[in-house]
Amino acid sequence: MAILASAPMPEVGRLSPPAAVAVGVAALILVLMPGLWEIVRNLTVMAHEGAHAVVGSCQGRRVRGVRLESNGDGGTNLGPQPPLTAGVVGYLGPSGFGLAAAGFIAHSLIVPVLWIGLVLLAILLLSVRNLFGITSVIVTGFLLLSVVRSRNAGVEAVVVYGLSWVLLLSGIRIVLKHRTNAIDAGILRDRTRLPKGLWYRLWLVGSIAALVWGATMLV
Fold this sequence. Notes:
Largest sheet: 2 strands, antiparallel
Distance between the termini: 48 Å
Helix content: 55-70%
Order of helices and strands: HHEEHHHHHHH
Shape: globular
Radius of gyration: 18 Å
Number of strands: 2
Structural class: mainly alpha
Strand order of the largest sheet: 1-2
C-alpha cells in the first residue's frame, strides 16, 4: 500500500541581488512619494511606538497605552518619568526592526520574519487605545497572515525584503522630517540638559548606519 505524504512546504530562499535591489527601489518610491508615504508611515509609527513599549517593558514599566494617529503622530504611555532609554529608542525603532529583519534574511530565515511580525503586532494590539490604531494594527496583521497562508515562496520573500527596506528607509525619513522639532528630543533635553540637536544627530547617524549595514545583508 502506498503511503500518502503531504506536499512539502515550498522552500523560501533569498532573492538574487538584482531582485533585492529592485525591491529596494520600489520601497524607496513608497517612502518618498506623497500619497504612498501616508500609507507606509503607519508601519513606521508602529515600529516607533513599539520600540518605546518594548524597551519600557524590558525595564519593568507597564505600558499604559499606545496611540497611533492617522496623521503620523503617536504616543506611548509608560507612566511618570519613563526610562531614558525608552525615550531614546523611538526614532531608532523603524531602523532597528528593519535591520533585524535583514539579519534574518541574511540567514535565509524568511518566513520567521513574518511570524515574528505577527507576534509583535499581536502584542502591540493589546496596548493600543484608539480606534485608528487598532484598525491599523489589525489590517497590517491580516495582510501578513495572508502572505503566510499563501505559502507562495516568491511572494513571502518579496514581502519580507520589502518590509526590511521600507523600515530602513523610512527610519531615515522620519528623523529628517522631525529633526530637532521631535517631541522625544524635547523631552530628552529637559531630562538630560543635552541639546535637542545632539539627539537628532544620534538618530540620524544610527538610522543611516542601519541602512548601510542592512543593505549589505539584503544585497
